[in-house]
């Protein structure tokens, strides 16, 4: 497996485009992805009880349709808490896309992101769809423009692609996502679109996606808020012409490995691009008694506001980490815990058996001043591990969200 240039248009048969439809001021705000052949599709969606209309549309479409052909997405308005009108607008988005691409309405998945409670400006949405369809581009540029068009408070577009081999055939998987705020580990808390030319059954595609979400998108947090619109869509058109994957064999696990690489890369990009963030904050729990214990501890640390603030201040305030572990509900012995900080600047043990080591504050500050920082907690109870990703908590986070609708 090797990383290659591109995103959603890297796999065979996929085209995409992003453009300005006038939903937002002077920014790209609509994107479309299209496969030249029908795709099997899988999706995972928000666990928030308040589900946006596109989540309901996509969930029902994936469950009831054998194949899908296209995804259309708008940025700026979430189409959440919009009642029957919002559902009608999803159908209208799908109908307009189907007409423009000469496909069936139920072969179109829709997504929206932005302000909750506002109705979609359907005149602009429809015009955007009419502009997108004839300009769809199979080049890497087409995918990049689409990645730019789904951004809200993101500071950078997020896309990645990998190439690998199955059954003697070269296969590709590529994805893009958006996410910066309203990010919390309760499913995936963002919009993610992953395309592959692998030939795989619908059931195995869902098995792969749902299994991997737990260790990637479900292990990130920026602010503890789970969105109403969280969606990850995975489409496979089979154009790599590999022997179809219909069971959990060697080919299946090669595909899962590539999918995991895409998901982890995108998840970390979201965490590192948290609203106002200056650093990606990674938390590793090692030598845990069980995977469940490790996950609980990692999530508790990465979501701790006090720990996140300490990371922003480059302050080795390890007491906040041990405190977050203590209220996590996971059982462990605090007097056996070792804690380390690590970054490009080095690695430093700051706690041994629950007590501070004679570490250098200057060295700790240097380590914590990098733009990617890792905290490692060794609980010495077994051989299980878990990793979570988040970011520091800055003054800028409050500024961004105080002015979000302005």
Instruction: Return residue spans where pLDDT drops below 50 for at least 5 consecutive residues.
Output: 181-189
Looking at the overall shape, the CATH architecture of the largest domain is 4-Layer Sandwich
The level 1 CATH classification of the largest domain is: Alpha Beta
Number of H/I helices: 11
Q: Portion of residues in helices? A: 25-40%
The fold-level CATH name of the largest domain is L-amino peptidase D-ALA esterase/amidase
Ends: how far apart? 45 Å
Compute the number of structural domains: 2
Calculate Rg over CA atoms: 22 Å
What is the CATH superfamily label of the largest domain?
L-amino peptidase D-ALA esterase/amidase
Family: Belongs to the ArgJ family.
Pfam families: ArgJ (PF01960)
Site (Involved in the stabilization of negative charge on the oxyanion by the formation of the oxyanion hole): 113-114
Organism: Eubacterium ventriosum
Describe the structure.
The active site is at residue 189. It catalyses: N(2)-acetyl-L-ornithine + L-glutamate = N-acetyl-L-glutamate + L-ornithine; L-glutamate + acetyl-CoA = N-acetyl-L-glutamate + CoA + H(+). This is Arginine biosynthesis bifunctional protein ArgJ. It is a single chain. Helix 1 packs across helix 2 and helix 2 (83-101) runs parallel beside helix 3 (122-132). The longest helix has 23 residues, at 250-272. The strands form two sheets. Strands 1, 2, 3, 4, 5, 6, 7, 8 and 9 form a nine-stranded mixed beta sheet that branches. This protein has a six-stranded mixed beta sheet with strand order 13-12-11-14-10-15. It starts with a strand and ends with a helix. It has eleven helices and 15 strands. A hairpin with a 2-residue loop joins strand 6 (158-166) and strand 7. The model is unreliable at 181-189 (pLDDT under 50). With 406 residues, it is of the alpha+beta class. The chain has two domains: 2-272, L-amino peptidase D-ALA esterase/amidase (4-Layer Sandwich), CATH 3.60.70.12; 280-402, Ubiquitin-like (UB roll). The chain is 33% helix and 28% strand. The protein has helices at residues 53-64, 83-101, 122-132, 140-149, 202-213, 250-272, 291-302, 305-312, 318-326, 361-368, 395-402; strands at 2-4, 14-19, 30-45, 68-77, 108-115, 158-166, 169-178, 191-196, 231-236, 280-288, 338-343, 346-352, 355-356, 372-378, 384-391.
């Amino acid at each position: 497996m090797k990383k290659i240039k591109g995103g959603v248009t890297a796999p065979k048969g996929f085209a995409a485009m992003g453009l300005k439809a006038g939903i937002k001021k002077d920014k790209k705000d609509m994107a479309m992805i299209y496969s030249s052949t029908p795709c099997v599709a899988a999706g995972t969606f928000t666990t928030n009880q308040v589900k946006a209309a596109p989540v309901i549309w996509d969930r029902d479409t994936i469950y009831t349709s054998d194949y899908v052909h296209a995804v259309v997405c708008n940025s700026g308005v979430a189409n959440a808490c919009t009642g029957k009108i919002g559902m009608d607008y999803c159908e209208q988005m799908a109908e307009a896309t189907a007409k423009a691409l000469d496909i069936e309405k139920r072969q179109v998945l829709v997504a929206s992101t932005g302000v909750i409670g506002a109705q979609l400006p359907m005149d602009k949405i429809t015009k955007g769809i009419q502009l997108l369809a004839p300009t769809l581009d199979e080049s890497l540029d087409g995918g990049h423009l689409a990645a730019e068009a789904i951004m809200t408070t993101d500071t950078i577009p997020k896309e990645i692609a990998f190439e690998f081999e199955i059954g003697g055939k070269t296969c590709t998987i590529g994805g893009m996502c958006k996410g910066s705020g309203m990010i919390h580990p309760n499913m995936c808390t963002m919009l993610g679109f992953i395309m592959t030319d692998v030939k795989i059954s619908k059931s195995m595609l869902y098995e792969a996606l749902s299994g991997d979400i737990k260790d990637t998108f479900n292990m990130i947090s920026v602010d503890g808020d789970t969105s109403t619109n969280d969606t990850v869509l995975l489409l496979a058109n089979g154009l790599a012409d590999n022997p179809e994957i219909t069971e959990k064999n060697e080919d299946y696990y090669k595909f899962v490995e590539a999918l995991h690489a895409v998901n982890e890369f995108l998840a970390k990009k979201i965490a590192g691009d948290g609203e106002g963030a200056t650093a990606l904050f990674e938390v590793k729990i090692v030598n845990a008694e069980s995977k469940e214990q490790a996950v609980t501890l990692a999530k508790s640390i990465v979501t701790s506001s006090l720990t996140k603030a300490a990371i922003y201040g480059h302050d080795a305030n390890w007491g906040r980490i041990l405190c977050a572990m203590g209220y996590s509900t996971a059982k462990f012995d605090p007097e056996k815990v070792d804690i380390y900080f690590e970054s490009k600047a080095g690695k430093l043990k700051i706690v041994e058996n629950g007590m501070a080591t004679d570490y250098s504050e200057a060295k700790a500050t240097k380590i914590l001043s990098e733009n990617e920082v890792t905290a490692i907690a060794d609980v010495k109870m077994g051989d299980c591990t878990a990793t979570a990703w988040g970011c520091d908590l800055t003054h800028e986070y409050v500024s961004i969200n105080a002015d979000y609708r302005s």
